[in-house]
Amino acid sequence: MATIYRKTAKGHSEIETRALRLPPRLRSALILVDGRRSDDELRKLILQQPDETLHTLNEQGLIEVIGITQDAPVARVQAGAAAPVAAPLAVFAQRAAAPSPAPAVAAPARSFEAARADAVRGFTDLVGPMAEALAIKMERARSFDELRPLVQTAQTVIGNARGGQAAAGYLSKVYGSTRG
Fold this sequence. Notes:
Layout: E1 2-7, H1 9-17, H2 24-32, H3 39-45, H4 50-59, E2 63-69, H5 88-96, H6 112-127, H7 132-140, H8 144-162, H9 164-176
Antiparallel strand pairs: 1-2
Helix pairs in contact: 2-4, 5-9, 6-7, 6-8, 6-9, 8-9
């Protein structure tokens, strides 16, 4: 069983204002909490004392439990199969543009909030606590036009840190996925 946490209003306020002057370990962990990651996933990303860190954030009212899930089986990719990578910047630009008639075989449009959440989560997954400053800017973005240059910067950072394949995978996840 996995526990899912999300930031409370107090947690979001702390990210924006730094009013509580959290130690870097707690602040980095707070940024990683997104309402989707399980405690198991967070433990892998929080480098020092992950259980104590999550407990402290919960005790201080910065995060809260939103659900407990059963572990789902992990989908396996066959060896040698390459993940498709679309032309992400073009797709993202189309979604940010003014509405136009949809083609006959169109994928469902993603909401801005879903794209932003995928951008932040994917970036912090790949870069870890060092992603903090850019992740905060992404969370503050209010439109595709504001988010696009931040995602391009994240792609560059990921490419420099993890290589071109990781950067392409990040863009594919952010621009190409259509979660319902």
